[in-house]
Design goal:
884 residues, alpha+beta, eight-stranded antiparallel sheet, two-stranded antiparallel sheet, elongated
């Protein structure tokens, strides 16, 4: 950012550096190993008095000189030229850190050139001892040149204590110096053997040719032992993050690691083949092929080193974007543009948004990416809008650390995202219009308190059940809604009915055939390991059936009802109304009936960041493109093959690997829970977004078709984050539990997250998803109806176990909290976009208002006499403000 630099959008400066550097480094290693090859072979020829071998060395010297001194020298200058143009900041940093090292290297280079010229031109004019002495001087100078360059190259990956001391020697003799030096020395000898095969292939005389083949092949193979040992040592010196990026996290590493390993194998096998008899044309073709394979091998090795260094150009000191690590936080606060010297726009305004975004794109993207070429940024961002791109930039360099973090303010990040979306892809910003839904009012069933003997109250246990409805790719949650009901016999002392009755349920018209709307049943065998009859849920229930009494909760329950929000020949509606009836088991007479919503939605906002379209009607469901993009990200990040499996008809349930209490899934050993994985990963991208982060994923978008948070709390300006915390806090509590369980992946997600409501991570209480949730009494001490709004916060205060959750908790008499208050996230009185009172049918039926059952001295609903005390919990007899 402090230097002008050359960017070529369609080619990329990195590609130019790679092409020139790989060719030069290949020949530079030949220049080192070849020096030893020359002197050692000359020594052998003189000891044997082998004139033919001596002549081979002389001719090979001429070939060697032209290749190393001419091409090697020119390409060496080319490296300096291209790196100064493409990455001047890093070039300047290396020059300033090792100015005396470079000076020493140039001295060795001059000695090297002089010695090689003397070695060649005085080949037959000096005594053998003197001539070989010059050869040893050449090799020594060449190796010492490698010694110096190796220290600087190794420094870029493992600067070690230099980061603290700034000392030349701490930077030069860094942790990977010695293994890298041994490896490069061994590689140089192997390359010398490979190029020796070239001149051997064109030697005259079958006897000499065969002898040279065997000799050069041994020269190629013997150093392999040193390379294997030093290569392993080198990997052990890498910083943990560098090794993880190289071996696991960076998808671009796969090809080059494979090229390196395959190249090593081919050279090894090729070298062995030279020991056997081959025809001359076959040998010559094989030799040329081996030299090219060696070049690819070198390219793989150098690129592996580059990838391991990502996202830095100098590890832990300077990012590949030329931003110093020490400056990153300041740039986030002050702005990248305000501190960059070679930009036209110093701040982002409405008028210059795209132009400023383009400058940010040049400085922070084109240093590694191209437009239409290698590592094409346009291909990687296709199908994403500005919001998705901004989210990705927000998380860049955090959960996946092989890319540098974006440096700049929120406005600059959004300007860059806007430029990529609009400038590169021509995707104009489109306001998401509110979806118009048809309001479908539903009348409550009648209730006559003067004649009724029973009260029947029903509710859904979660307040909203989400479904990932593209089972052909993966399943997070299946269609599996749970319906609760309590039947109370009215009287002076009401009784919860536990037997002698049958409770049944049935949905309103249009919801009877869920199997015709989602592919759950088609892929149930692959996802859940069980073949289900169409329309039958995981617990054996259909959308019509009977509830079973559960003594532990003193309630009738129907688990895993496979209801979906799609209706036959009618619009999407995530709030189907179910009618529940209680009948005498002996006579079949109707004792009581009621209505309640069994809410279920497929409006999971994965497409907001992963691209694609809604699966159904342009309003809901995970589309195929979205699902494929999600699996592709998972496969790249974790080395899985989920997308291939899905395309072959074998999708996977997420909980087959990830533990999850909601499904009772144990998962694979060492894997984090599904909730911790999802929230931990995405918190790194959505941190700072507040409630927007919740609404981007969960079905509560202001312009969406669900708005699942519909109870009294949002009416009182209580949001998701009030109870659960912002996504970074929500994730931290889950991740801390995973860390306690010894799951190392948690630390990767934790390190970039900071809590907002407490001073430090140490103050956060860890929690298990679905079991440790916010407690109602956090904000309602002693069951206060209207809490102190200045102390309204529930984050970090969890119920200790699942039985203490609101949806499972009851009073001393067995009445569950939800029986009177309604389902979580839909506490009475509610507001439902599909009908004012679709969620208030119970209170309206039994007391003619929308309030909590029994509020306003309405004990007479169940009690046939005046109640003088708070029978269920403190505050029951408090007055009421009335319904809406």
């Amino acid at each position: 950012m402090n230097y002008p630099f050359w960017h070529i959008p369609t080619v990329g400066g990195g590609v130019l550096i790679a092409v020139i550097a790989i060719l030069h480094v290949y020949i530079a290693h030949l220049a080192v190993g070849g020096g030893f090859f020359l002197v050692w072979t000359e020594r052998l020829a003189r000891r044997r008095n082998d004139d033919a071998l001596f002549e081979y060395v002389r001719r090979h010297t001429w070939f060697f000189l032209l290749l190393t001194m001419v091409f090697g020298g020119i390409s060496g200058v080319g490296i300096w030229f291209i790196i100064a143009l493409v990455h001047p900041a890093a070039t300047s940093a290396l020059i300033h850190a090792f100015v005396f090292g470079w000076a020493i290297e140039w001295v060795f280079f001059v000695v090297e050139i002089t010695a090689l010229l003397l070695y060649h031109y005085l080949f037959t004019r000096l005594s053998g001892r003197a001539h070989m002495a010059i050869g040893w001087v050449y090799f020594g100078a060449a190796w010492l040149s490698l010694f110096i360059i190796n220290g600087i190259l190794a420094f870029m990956l493992t600067p070690g204590r230099w980061l603290e001391t700034g000392s030349f020697f701490d930077g030069f003799f860094n942790p990977s110096f010695w293994p890298s030096l041994i490896y490069r020395t061994a590689f140089a000898l192997t390359v010398a053997g490979l190029f020796g095969l070239i001149t051997a292939a064109f030697s005259r005389g079958t006897r000499l040719e065969n002898s040279l083949y065997r000799y050069c092949a041994r020269f190629t193979l013997i150093p392999f032992v040193g390379m294997l040992l030093s290569g392993y040592w080198f990997l052990r010196t890498l910083p943990g993050e560098a090794a993880a990026n190289l071996l696991h996290l960076n998808p671009e590493a796969e090809f080059f690691v494979a090229a390196f390993l395959l190249g090593a194998a081919l050279i090894f096998l090729g070298g062995l083949s030279m020991l056997s008899s081959m025809s001359r044309p076959a040998r010559r073709a094989s030799v040329l092929l081996l030299v090219l394979i060696g070049l690819g091998w070198m390219g793989g090795m150098e690129y592996i080193r580059e990838i391991a260094r990502k996202p830095f150009v100098i590890y832990d000191h300077m990012y590949s974007t030329s931003v110093l690590v020490s400056d990153a936080e300041r740039l986030n606060n002050e702005g990248f543009l305000a501190n960059a010297k070679w930009v036209a726009h110093k701040e982002v305004t409405d008028e210059n948004r795209l132009d400023a975004g383009r400058e940010l794109f040049v400085h922070q993207c084109l240093i590694c990416h191209t437009v239409g070429g290698y590592n094409d940024v346009s291909a990687k961002t296709a199908g994403l809008d500005a919001f998705a791109l901004s989210v990705r930039l927000n998380g860049q360099g955090k959960a996946r650390t092989y890319m540098p973090p974006f440096a700049g303010t929120t406005a600059e990040r959004e300007a860059l995202a806007a430029y990529v979306a609009e400038g590169l892809h021509g995707v104009a910003p489109v306001e998401r219009p509110p979806v118009a839904v048809a309001r479908e009012e539903m009348d409550p069933l009648p209730f006559d308190p003067s004649r009724a003997e029973y009260v029947l109250l029903a509710w859904n246990d979660l307040g909203m059940h989400c479904i990932s409805d593209n089972d052909r790719y993966f399943v997070i949650l299946p269609p599996a809604n749970t319906l609760y009901a309590q039947l109370i016999r009215r009287g002076p002392k009401p009784v919860i009915v536990s037997g002698g009755v049958e409770l049944t349920y049935a949905p309103e018209a249009g919801y009877m055939r869920p199997e015709s709307h989602v592919p759950f049943w088609e892929f149930a065998s692959s996802n859940f390991g069980v073949a289900l009859e169409p329309g039958v849920g995981l617990k054996g229930n259909r959308v019509t059936g009977a509830l079973e009494y559960q003594a532990a909760q003193k309630a009738y329950v129907a688990e895993a009802i496979p209801v979906v929000p799609y209706r036959d020949e009618r619009p999407y509606n995530p709030y189907p109304v179910f009618t529940v009836e209680a009948r005498d088991r002996k006579t079949g007479g109707l004792l009581a009936s009621t209505r309640t919503v069994v809410p279920t939605t497929t409006e999971m906002g994965c497409l907001n960041c992963h691209g694609g379209e809604w699966r159904v009607g342009g309003v809901s469901g995970i589309g195929d493109i979205t699902a494929e993009n999600i699996l592709a990200v998972h496969d790249r990040s974790h080395g899985t093959d989920l997308l291939v499996g899905a395309r072959e008809g074998a999708p996977r349930l997420c909980q087959s690997c990830h533990p999850d209490p909601v499904l009772g899934a144990k998962g694979a050993p060492g894997m984090m829970s599904l909730s911790a994985s999802l929230h931990g990963f995405h918190a790194n991208y959505l941190r700072g977004y507040g409630v927007r982060a919740c609404n981007a994923c969960h079905p509560n978008h202001p312009d969406g078709v669900t708005k699942c948070l519909r109870g009294v709390h949002p009416q009182r300006r209580v949001s998701c984050t009030t109870c659960h915390g912002d996504i970074e806090e929500h994730a931290l509590a889950l991740l801390l539990r995973e860390r306690e369980l010894g799951r190392p992946q948690a630390e990767r997600y934790i390190r970039n997250l900071r809590p907002l409501s407490v001073a430090s991570i140490d103050e956060i209480h860890s929690r298990t998803p679905w079991l440790n949730e916010p407690d109602c009494l956090n904000c309602h001490p002693e069951y206060a109806r209207t809490p102190d709004r200045t102390k309204l916060a529930s984050y970090n205060k969890w119920v200790p176990a699942g039985e203490m959750l609101f949806r499972n908790r009851g009073d001393a008499r067995g009445i569950l909290c939800a029986t009177c208050h309604g389902a979580p996230h839909a506490i009475y009185p509610t507001r439902n976009m599909y009908g004012e009172d679709r969620d208030n049918l119970g209170p309206l039926q039994y007391q003619g208002n929308r309030n909590v059952i029994g509020r306003g001295d309405n004990c007479a609903l169940c009690h046939t006499r005046k109640m003088p005390c708070n029978a269920h919990h403190p505050g029951v007899l408090r007055g009421s403000e009335g319904g809406r």
